[in-house]
Design brief:
Rossmann fold, alpha/beta, Arc Repressor Mutant, subunit A
């Protein structure tokens, strides 16, 4: 914060109308001072060094850099800055990866600017914040998972129940043909599902897949 206690905010958004609109709306808050608005990651880095903001609100063009990669860079190189991801994409993995990268808040663009103001005031205290749309999304997903039990996070990767069962059957020594009979699907479908699982887990061969299953106690039933 500056000497009069205002929170210095930098808005980095690839949409011109959004960054200028946010500047006007956030500047109406007596506790917030918008010190710069930027478009690209390079312009943002320059303004961070020049203006030393307390909070950076980001939504970069994915062609330029992903929000999560930018957040990770800011967190490592400017640890005193709080990063708020302000994006339209409400995706569980993207949001989780954003917080892992060092984000202090995730606010959907579909929320009103009041939520962004609240986020700025919260993160400056060292706390985390998610906008109401994001919160509702996570709550609904959690409730569905508790009811259905179809998904489980293992080592930060979301595996559906059939995926866990396939891994378990592989550990049991079943062939693709035998697994196909278990699920009443074609042999080719088993190969596709196995490939999808290994890609999701970033595992390159069956031996490592079995090792992963044993470490994480994944069983066929």
């Amino acid at each position: 914060m500056n000497q009069i206690g205002m929170i210095k905010v930098l808005i980095a958004d690839h949409q011109e109308i959004v960054r200028h609109g946010l500047k006007v709306l956030l500047s109406r808050c007596s506790e917030i001072k918008v010190v710069a608005i930027t478009n690209s990651i390079y312009e943002t880095l320059g303004k961070i060094r020049a203006k030393e903001p307390d909070v950076v609100v980001v939504d970069f063009d994915p062609i330029d850099i992903s929000n999560n990669k930018a957040t990770e860079y800011f967190s490592k190189n400017f640890p005193n800055i709080k990063v708020i991801i302000h994006n339209s994409n409400i995706d569980k993995k993207i949001i989780a990866d954003g917080f892992r990268a060092g984000a202090s808040a995730y606010v959907a663009k579909t929320n009103s600017v009041e939520y962004l103001k609240d986020a700025i005031k919260v993160v400056i205290k060292g706390e985390k914040y998610i906008g109401t749309n994001v919160a509702n999304f996570f709550v609904n997903n959690l409730i569905n998972e508790l009811i259905n039990g179809n998904e489980e996070m293992i080592n930060g990767v979301e595996l559906e129940k059939p995926e866990r069962e396939i891994i378990g059957y592989i550990c049991d020594g079943l062939s693709n043909g035998e697994i196909a009979k278990k699920f009443n699907i074609q042999l080719r479908a088993v190969s596709k599902r196995k490939h999808k699982i290994m890609k999701k887990l970033q595992i390159g061969n069956t031996a490592d897949l079995i090792k992963f299953a044993l470490i994480n106690n994944i069983k066929s039933n």
